[in-house]
Amino acid sequence: MLVCHCQGVNDRAIRSAVREGAATCADVARHCRAGNRCGGCRPAVQGIIDSELVQSPLAAHSSAESLSERP
């Protein structure tokens, strides 16, 4: 399903970004550009982030660890 029409990003790309550590809309925007333009899709992007983190609590833990490891 196309989520970000401005950048042509679908839900699979957003889910993949979350599985790779994205935990916020800004993280997702850096990873796949969803929500990086007009912002109209940010509520949908946040919903996908929330859904993925609930389904995979380890993703949230991994994301927190990777963020704390950054200089």
Question: How would you summarize this macromolecular structure in one to three sentences?
Answer:
This protein is mainly alpha-helical and 71 residues long. It has helices at residues 11-19, 25-32, 42-55, 57-69, and strands at 2-4, 9-10. The termini are far apart.
Q: Which homologous superfamily in CATH is the superfamily? A: BFD-like [2Fe-2S]-binding domain
Helical element count? 4
Biggest sheet statistics: 2 strands, antiparallel
- Portion in strands: 5-15%
**Structural class, judged by helices and strands?**
mainly alpha
Radius of gyration: 12 Å
CATH architecture: Orthogonal Bundle
CATH topology: Arc Repressor Mutant, subunit A
What spatial order of strands do you see in the largest sheet?
1-2
Task: Report the strand count.
Answer: 2
Oligomer description? single chain
General form = globular
Sequence stretches where pLDDT stays below 50 over 5 or more residues: 63-71
Number of domains: 1
Give helix % range: 55-70%
Mean pLDDT across every amino acid position: 86
CATH class: Mainly Alpha
Write a structural description.
This protein has 4 helices and 2 strands. β1 and β2 form a beta hairpin. By secondary structure, it is mostly helical. The longest helix has 14 residues, at 42-55. The chain has one domain: BFD-like [2Fe-2S]-binding domain (Arc Repressor Mutant, subunit A, Orthogonal Bundle), CATH 1.10.10.
